[in-house]
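Homework help board

Subject: predicted structure for assignment chain

Our instructor gave us this sequence and asked us to write out the predicted structure in token form, then describe one feature. I got the tokens but I'm not sure how to describe them. Can anyone check?
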Amino acid sequence: MKAKLTFLLVTSLLLTGLCGCFSTKEATAGVVLELEINNSLYELDNSGADFSGALKNTPPRFGEDSATCVRNWSLYSEFFRQRNYKAAIDPWRWMFFNCPMATENIYIHGATLVKFMLTNETDPIRQQALVDTLMMVYDQRIQYYSEKEGFIRGRKAVELYQLRPNAVQEHYELSERSIELEGNSAPGDVLVINFHSTVRLAAAGVIDSTAVVENYDRATDIIQYNLVNNPADSTFYIPARNNIEAFFEPFASCDNLARVFRPRFNNTPEDPELLERITSMLNRSGCTDNELFYLATRNLHRLNPTAQSAFLMGRMETSQKNYNRAIEYFEEAISLYGENGDKFTTYLLMANIMHQHLRRLPQARAYALRASEIRPNDGRPFILIGEMYASSARDCGDNDLTNNVAFWTAVDKFIQARNVDSDPAIRERATQLINTYSQYFPNVETIFFYGLSEGDTYRVECWINETTRVRSR
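My token output:
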């Protein structure tokens, strides 16, 4: 009885009007009484109460009075088209209650009309009642267009998030149901609202912090799906990703992630889906040296070897300083990859290991050159080769000239990197290296002593075996 009374009160507000031009003492009394009951229409919806007493049965499309329905439809539509929202309210209101299935525009336009009333209302009590009315518009739209429930709940969550920013539980429940129904079609703003409310509820101790990790994982998966499959929508999903990552940062410590996932791993250590989530989350958060990452990656690769799992095993073995084993896994990843972009990164990692840790410079150069074949406009492979040449200069000479000729070839590679790459950061790095290593060129006297002149061609021997041009510092 209490629920039905509340509905009738809010209904009376719609019938009499809530902006200043429609206000009456009776409407004001109804608002106050409705608030004293402290049971808003939105709260009734979530409690499962039946507030549809005025709409007990699904009506015919044009209601019981089709002629009046069509006449009001024509009036409100024309006023709405002219942006004369004040005049559109009365005929729209009649349709809302008397022929609610005539057109879905009753609810699409209705949200605009209620927000118009809300914008022009200055009384805080009336404003809150209008928020309830707006929620009722969304609820009735779900009632008659239930096939769009996921989308409509998402829009309802967005409106409530803006109008009642502290209704966190409602934000969470609405967005959670919307994402559950929409899946990969969930909009970016709904994902942000869902994750923000998840973080706030977890911080307040209302829900377990594991929900933060789970919902972050779900949101990033949906965003990545849309960035790949719906690139035209990237303007919506990229800001959503940035906001979600900012909200997640306080929870993204390796210890937190391990605390969430370790019990699950212990219970089902060979569940491929769980292993993929663990490795993806830990890798994305920079936790590749965590023991759980090692265990999950090892099990995943044993159960289902893929390019990704092989790559992760290579990263893991690198962090354990098992460099030869890491190279084996990276080679396996190369053989399994289908996309050159992934191969580029893997070849560069192998080149770095061969250069920095195993000192197998010819093989390091070979890996770097393979990377450059995949991305010829990326300067990083040439910078790496130049650094190899510079680091081996003293090992490739036995006098004042040959001890320094490798720096010519090193600078050649830095110049090449700067020429092929348009990235300002890469170009700046290449320029810095050019300036640094040009100082190690032989001086004019040394060049003259060995019978050479500026601009002569010169063959640098040792493992480098490249022809360059004579230059002095």
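Reply (TA_rk): Your tokens look well-formed. For the description, you could write something like this. Residues 1-57 have pLDDT under 50 and may be disordered. That's the kind of observation they're looking for.
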